[in-house]
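[Meeting: bench + compute handoff]

Bench side (C.D.) handed over the final construct sequence. Compute side (W.E.) agreed to return the predicted structure before the next meeting so the bench team could plan truncations. Sequence as handed over:
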Amino acid sequence: MNLILSVTLGLVLGAAPAVAAVEQCRFIQAKPEREACYQRQEKELAAKRKPAPAANTRAMETLEQMRREDDAVYKSLRGICRGC
């Protein structure tokens, strides 16, 4: 029981700093500074959400090569007599 409680408490405390960093903008009194804070956060979130194009391109190249290899295997199997 104590183990579960300590693990849960650790997870809650570990996640708290990430949430606090996102919500700090609403406590800024000056409107221009607060809006600038929100814009910085939007840029950071957009950068995190943007997928890495190099990884996606590499995956597509790998899939295309696999398809070419599969086509070569299927063509070689067509020449095998079935039911002779």
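W.E. noted at the follow-up: Helices lie at 2-23, 31-49, 53-78. C.D. will use this when planning the next construct.
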